[in-house]
Design a protein that fits this description.
Elements (H helix, E strand, L loop, with lengths): L1 H26 L1 H14 L6 E7 L5 E7 L6 H7 L21 H9 L6 H7 L3 E3 L24 E3 L1 H5 L6 H12 L4 H21 L1
Parallel strand pairs: 3-4
Antiparallel strand pairs: 1-2
Helix pairs in contact: 1-5
């Protein structure tokens, strides 16, 4: 019965992901086009979208799609800025990151740079709700932390709603592993709906 329930959960979740991501892409078609034009206008020589390699389900790499918010040589500059990171390496975060473009700051502040990831959800690389994929390889994880890789990465998750910048990576892992080891579509819907006010609060506080 447990396996049957788990199969039903995965089937319903994947069906919901497909329907909602497809609907979102249709509704957001015009805003996506406008943002693309603004990104292109700031630097016509740089790509509109940024494909970033992240660690996904089972530790396998997944390339998530985002609107470009940084200068073209951002990855090269990251190592130079390592000592300014607010969180332990290989995670990286800093205030007033000089690599971020003017339009990029607005897109990040409002999380609009994440909208193209609905394509990742539609493709099946991601889910609407899941552990947020990390930018560093799974080989840097402690063994117990790899438990978060048992679940398909998400566009949003409990960390975005309840943790964000207030949690280090260990706390984030504990939260995500605890949350997703108890499959609940209702709990995931609550996270999904709580994401919008969480993003708005972050925007207002920035």
């Amino acid at each position: 019965m447990l396996k049957r329930d788990h199969l039903a959960y995965r089937t319903i979740k994947r069906t919901f992901d497909i329907l909602m991501s497809a609907l979102a892409l249709v509704i957001l078609a015009i805003p996506l086009a406008v943002i693309a034009l603004l990104v292109l206008r700031e630097d016509p020589s740089a790509p509109i979208f940024f494909r970033q390699r992240r660690t996904g389900l089972g530790g396998k790499p997944v390339h998530i799609l985002k609107f470009r918010t940084m200068v073209k040589n951002a990855d090269e500059l990251k190592e130079q800025l390592r000592e300014h990171s607010l969180v332990p390496w290989p995670d990286f975060r800093m205030n007033d990151d000089p690599r971020v473009t003017r339009i990029g700051r607005f897109l990040r502040k409002t999380s609009l740079d994440e909208l193209p990831q609905f394509f990742n959800v539609l493709k099946g690389d991601m889910s609407l709700v899941g552990p947020r994929p990390t930018s560093f390889d799974y080989s840097t994880y402690d063994l117990w932390q790899t438990g978060r890789l048992d679940f398909r990465p998400g566009l949003t998750g409990p960390w975005q709603v309840w943790g964000r910048d207030s949690m280090d990576f260990e706390e984030r892992c504990r939260l995500e592993i605890s949350f997703f080891r108890k499959p609940s579509l209702l709990a995931e819907l609550r996270v999904l709906f709580a994401t919008i006010p969480a993003v708005l609060r972050r925007t207002g506080a920035a």
